[in-house]
Task: inverse folding
């Protein structure tokens, strides 16, 4: 890691370019920060202060009241019980979806690199391309199939008394996110295991370990970095998803956070409470921001891994 | 019946044959070295013996039993890999014990076995460490320990020393040889380093382009190469291969080497002269190792045919123990190996002694040995 | 035997009969494929099967509910007609023109700004560790949050315009977000804000991967800093440009949430992208066949970019 051409360090260059560089960098940093700053200060202001004050001014008397109201009282459509229920909806959807898609991606990556068969490239290519399709191309058939799942759930309820998850919107979204996340998780693990020394697998074979033993004892314990990357990537993507959420769980009390936030902001009944809206947006952004702050390095690596193919 | 038999073994990747029918056998306790340039198929051959690569045709038998269809873990082999392939998440002790664990050996027995191997390789103090905390040489030992603990019928080594620095490589080479002498287990060892092959092997198999070139003891392969490839590949510096003409002079068969601005150099082929009768009047390549061309006093006293000639010295390269002297014969550079105190200077003429007992002759077209 | 030397092997059939593999061994051989099979099957059905399904629907006259009687290419004919209906613009005309404006500006500005900040950051900057995360954090936010934040920030009555008025610049006028001719540019602004930091990170990684000896050599050759970047470093970043371009193009075509959250579609649907068009026609306007046809066109567009890229990437790595 060597920085390229550092004018400040090479003899014969003046101080002026350095000032320009720092100036530009700080200027850009401010621009990137302003929307978030505005969102944050607005969420801590009272409505009169917002209406009569300056957007960029710090709150005169910071109040957490908008946050409390966003969490517990904000109106989503016609129900005014706050966003906390939708927050949990998202959690209930994200956790299993991330776990399942990551696990399957790891297994797929393992097979596609260490147990290659004829046509492995075609299989991987088809799974990889699935990452790039516009989801609009599958939106409608999936809606139909999920509808069928619902019917099947009703049938199961009538015959056995349980739905077994069929027709449950959260289960549906978990399923959808696993299906359309598999390409990415497989890509991540395949690229990681591609660089994983095959001799270790051979050594384990000579040592007598089975297919699953090699995976569990040799590959998985050495996969922590890519597991973290994949989990963060999937978590961020699924938490932030809006299209599937609005298409398959777009109304009622089953909505995930993103849909609920959009509804809060666009609820037209009564006075628009901007501070509550901003607090709701902050709450919706909190989990992914937290992940980014705590594990930014892995976050970036995930984005890069998703960008650099093959 | 030999202990390890490799019978007309073929490996194909699609339409390309990378191993073209290899037949080899090793007695129990033998040390077989597979040697050849990269891409010759030696590692593939080892992988096929291990069961890590499928066999396209032919058969591998260990102790009389066909193992083609057996999983690597059922072949009763152990393998030391080029990269050592130590499991990074396990301690040294766990690495060594892993194979036993997979075979369901009880914990107490495993611990005893690990302790025994650790003592044999003097690495008891390393057992609790992770591979990342070890030096290259220590990793090498652990890799050997992992193989030793299983007490297999055959050890397979895949270029185990190629990742070590020069000095450590020599030490470990000795260590491997000592272990072999002590354990007496059959070993198949792959290397591209012909010195390793010479020092370790009881049997050497030289491969090139998937074809077995020569199979024999180190001395045979070194002294009686069957073709120019083996002659050139084994030995360092490699054998001089000089264009020469075979002709009759005064009723004797002689070898004539052309020289720049001089008469041809005439050498008496000694014991080879009868065989050379068949190629009388033809061009051949004279193969003679540098140590068979010396200064007069450095020559082998027991040799039957020594020829003293004066040659023009081009370059002198003192190497400490010896001095390499380069001259020009038959249009090619010829290296002689003289004693370090031989008084030779570049640009002058000096006496050279050819030990023609060691000379071999090749057909320049077929590259096969003619005498 | 030990002394024998053989160059050519006589070709006799191997004598001992080859025992067949045990049941268990065959199971072991099939196991990896069995493990991969469910994922692959899911992909085949729910990606490729569904794509075919969508294509099929686009050739029916499905309205509010799918109908499975093939009719004709009427949906495509309508889209084709709409493509040229610019006065007053059809929704489809607006969507694809917006796609063009948004796609070009979004990709170009993200690449330019990303490269600029990456180069600035690569000058051995003190505090790089603080600055870098600031440029990148928007990428962690959902489009919905981004939309909500920018909607507020760009609101003429509350946001930037109002603030500048308060500071005394009363003639400042900025109402793009409410203006049907300019609303798409606000989507560009918010989109660039979100993604340019990520492009910066890609370029920075690329810059850090360049062999520093090349740079030293060029300095000795007398290249100025500007020449160094223009002639040597930027050309070396070509693979990064390609990767970034692919990612951005793919994000641009998929953009749906941002338009919804930032503009709610804009005045009279003037901020629509094809993805919004598809959603609206399929789920709101009961024109399922048209919606499907537009999805097929989106897919075809993206495939034209991605397939050659993936093909070359996977081919290069073949042994």
Result:
């Amino acid at each position: 890691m060597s920085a390229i051409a550092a004018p400040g360090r090479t003899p014969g260059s003046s101080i002026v370019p350095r000032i320009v560089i720092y100036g530009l960098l700080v200027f850009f940093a401010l621009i990137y920060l302003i929307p978030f700053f505005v969102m944050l200060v607005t969420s801590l202001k009272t409505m009169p202060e917002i209406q009569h004050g300056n957007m960029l001014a710090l709150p005169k008397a910071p109040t957490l009241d908008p946050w409390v109201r966003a969490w517990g009282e904000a109106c989503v459509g016609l129900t005014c019980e706050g966003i906390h229920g939708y927050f949990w909806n998202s959690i209930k959807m994200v956790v299993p979806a991330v776990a399942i898609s990551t696990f399957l991606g790891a297994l797929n990556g393992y097979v596609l690199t260490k147990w290659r068969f004829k046509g492995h490239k075609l299989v991987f290519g088809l799974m990889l391309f699935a990452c790039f399709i516009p989801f609009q191309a599958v939106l409608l058939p999936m809606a139909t199939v999920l509808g069928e799942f619902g019917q099947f759930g009703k049938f199961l309820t009538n015959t056995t008394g349980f739905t077994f998850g069929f027709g449950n919107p959260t289960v549906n979204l978990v399923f959808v996110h696993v299906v359309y996340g598999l390409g990415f998780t497989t890509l991540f693990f395949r690229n990681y295991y591609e660089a994983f020394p095959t001799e270790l697998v051979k050594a384990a074979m000579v040592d007598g370990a089975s297919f699953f033993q090699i995976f569990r004892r040799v590959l998985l314990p050495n996969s922590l970095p890519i597991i973290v990357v994949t989990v963060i990537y999937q978590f961020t993507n699924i938490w932030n998803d809006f299209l599937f959420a609005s298409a398959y769980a777009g109304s009622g009390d089953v909505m995930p956070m993103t849909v609920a936030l959009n509804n809060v902001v666009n609820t037209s009944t009564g006075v628009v409470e901007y501070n509550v809206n901003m607090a709701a947006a902050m709450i919706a952004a909190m989990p992914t921001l937290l992940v980014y702050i705590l594990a930014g390095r892995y976050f970036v690596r995930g984005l890069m891994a998703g960008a650099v193919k093959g | 019946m030999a202990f390890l038999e490799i019978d007309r073994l073929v490996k194909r990747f699609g339409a390309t044959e990378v191993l073209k029918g290899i037949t080899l056998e090793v007695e129990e306790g033998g040390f077989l070295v597979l040697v050849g340039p990269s891409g010759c198929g030696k590692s593939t051959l080892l992988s096929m013996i291990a069961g890590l690569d499928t066999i396209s045709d032919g058969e591998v038998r260990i102790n009389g039993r066909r193992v083609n269809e057996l999983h690597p873990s059922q072949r009763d082999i152990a393998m030391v890999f080029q990269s050592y392939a130590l499991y990074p998440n396990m301690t040294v002790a766990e690495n060594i014990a892993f194979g036993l664990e997979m075979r369901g050996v009880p914990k107490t027995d495993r611990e005893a076995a690990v302790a025994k191997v650790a003592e044999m390789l003097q690495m008891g103090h390393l057992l609790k460490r992770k591979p990342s905390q070890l030096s290259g040489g220590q990793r090498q030992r652990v890799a050997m320990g992992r193989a030793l603990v299983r007490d297999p019928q055959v050890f397979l080594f895949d270029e185990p020393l190629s990742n070590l620095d020069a000095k450590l490589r020599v030490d470990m080479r000795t260590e491997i040889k000592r272990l072999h002498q002590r354990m007496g287990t059959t070993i198949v060892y792959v290397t591209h380093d012909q010195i390793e092959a010479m020092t370790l092997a009881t049997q050497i198999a030289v491969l090139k382009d998937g074809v077995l070139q020569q199979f024999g003891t180190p001395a045979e392969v070194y002294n009686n190469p069957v073709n120019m490839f083996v002659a050139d590949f084994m030995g360092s510096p490699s054998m001089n291969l000089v264009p020469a003409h075979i002709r009759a002079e005064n009723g004797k068969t002689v070898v004539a080497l052309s020289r720049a601005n001089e008469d041809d150099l005439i050498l008496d082929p000694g014991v080879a002269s009868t065989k050379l009768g068949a190629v009388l009047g033809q061009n051949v390549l004279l193969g003679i190792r540098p140590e068979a061309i010396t200064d007069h006093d450095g020559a082998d006293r027991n040799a039957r045919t020594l020829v003293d000639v004066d040659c023009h010295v081009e370059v002198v390269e003192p190497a400490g123990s010896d001095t390499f002297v380069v001259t020009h014969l038959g249009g090619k550079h010829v290296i002689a190996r003289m004693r370090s105190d031989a008084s030779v200077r570049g640009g002058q003429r000096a006496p050279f002694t050819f030990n023609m007992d060691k000379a071999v002759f090749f057909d320049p077209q077929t590259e096969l040995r003619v005498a | 035997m030990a002394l024998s030397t053989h160059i050519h092997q006589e070709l006799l059939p191997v004598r001992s009969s080859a025992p067949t593999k045990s049941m268990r061994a065959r199971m072991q051989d099939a196991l990896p494929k069995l493990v991969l099979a469910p994922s692959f099957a899911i992909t085949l059905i729910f990606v490729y099967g569904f794509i075919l399904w969508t294509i099929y629907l686009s050739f029916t006259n499905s309205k509010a509910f799918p109908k499975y009687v093939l009719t004709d290419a009427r949906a495509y004919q309508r889209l084709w007609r709409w493509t040229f209906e610019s006065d007053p613009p059809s929704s489809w005309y607006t969507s694809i023109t917006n796609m063009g404006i948004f796609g070009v500006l979004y990709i170009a500005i993200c690449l330019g700004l990303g490269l600029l900040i990456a180069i600035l950051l690569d000058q051995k900057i003190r505090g790089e560790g603080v600055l870098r995360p600031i440029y990148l954090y928007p990428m962690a936010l959902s489009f919905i949050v981004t939309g909500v934040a920018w909607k507020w920030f760009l609101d003429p009555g509350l946001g930037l315009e109002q603030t500048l008025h308060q500071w005394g610049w009363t003639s400042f006028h900025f109402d793009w977000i409410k203006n049907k001719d300019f609303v798409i540019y606000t989507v560009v602004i918010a989109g660039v804000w979100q993604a340019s930091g990520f492009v910066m990170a890609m370029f920075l990684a690329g810059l850090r991967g360049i062999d520093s000896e090349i740079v030293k050599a060029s300095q000795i050759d007398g290249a100025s800093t500007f020449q160094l970047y223009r002639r040597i470093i930027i050309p070396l970043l070509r693979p990064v440009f390609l990767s970034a371009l692919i990612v951005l193009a793919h994000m641009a075509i998929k953009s749906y949430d941002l338009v919804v959250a930032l503009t709610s579609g804009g005045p009279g649907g003037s901020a629509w992208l094809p993805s919004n068009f598809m959603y609206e026609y399929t789920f709101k306007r009961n024109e399922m066949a048209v919606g499907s046809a537009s999805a097929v066109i989106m897919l075809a567009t993206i495939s034209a970019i991605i397939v050659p890229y993936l093909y070359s990437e996977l081919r290069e790595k073949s042994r």
